[in-house]
Fold:
Amino acid sequence: MTFTSQQYLHALAPIDKVIDAFIEEEKSSVFDVWSILSQGRFAALLASSPYSSSSPDLSNDEDIEIECDGIEFLPSEKYVQKLMKRYTTRLEMEGKELEDNNLASLVCHFSMSRISKLPDPADSCLLTYLVPLVEKEGGCRDLSRQMKHDMLRIRIYPHHNDVGVAKVWEAGACLAEYLIQYPECVRGRRVIELGAGVGLTGFIAAVVGATSVHMTDYTDATLENLIYNVSINNEWLEDRGIATDSVSIGNLEWGEYAEHDCCSHPADVLIAADVVYTVECIPDLVATVSKFLSSGSSTNAKVALFATTYRNRSTFALFERELEKKRIMCHYKSQDEMPYVFPCYFNQPRSD
Structure:
């Protein structure tokens, strides 16, 4: 799948991916991809985005109500600074001069900005994704350009020590793509998500037809960020005919659910992505899945959908063995059968 430079930029892709995609686009329209015209278009690529973010502190509840209306994409200044520096370096390597006034102004702005070289845990970014919608008769068609609110917006904290807010994880993007390709897995059914993180997969479950989606996690930072991401996407959901009260958030400790069934949101389908990451978490995770599946009936059998990244094959093998002990049958789906929708596979290829 080929993504545009804007899609890469809005996903905070590695800076060379953004620049390479931009250069490929320029090759189709100009002879010299480093000309003053191309420099101006590169400046325009960035100019639609605000450059200074009032990054809220996740420990402060009052910061959740930040106004984001009208903001389509909010990168960190550090990211844009690195992008500008890399582009001008490549410009110089090609023996070209900086000629466009708008680009020169941006370079001047970032050269004068006092941006700390140290990663800041409170530095937030707003990513945006154009999501294809699933029609009733099946198949995908991009309807979002006909709507008032085009983009699904996801706030992340790329330097935070809580992995639940740090990024859109690759397995989460893969599971979201799976639901877009196979919406019948959740359509007309109630969904609960374990380890929802920043919420991308849960939003997609709602978009493809789930009657309700309950996104769960357990750290305060992740839950507060989930609340925020739902709040800034309320109109995006309403545009797509989804009642905002059908998407909810809750704290769920896997061990407690397995022992006490403390979740007050009944569900038919459990979804989870990138939750098989340590040996220590597997007993509670498998116990939770077993508890969920065993509470179904023969007429309304429950299903659990997992997407996982093979970081440690032995850890995943243990997960499979524990599922087998609980007599939970597993069926596997190849990622090659799904379309690429989200430009998120930068650090971990989808083949993993």
User: Anything to note?
Assistant: The chain has 13 helices and nine strands. The first strand starts at residue 125 and ends at 129.
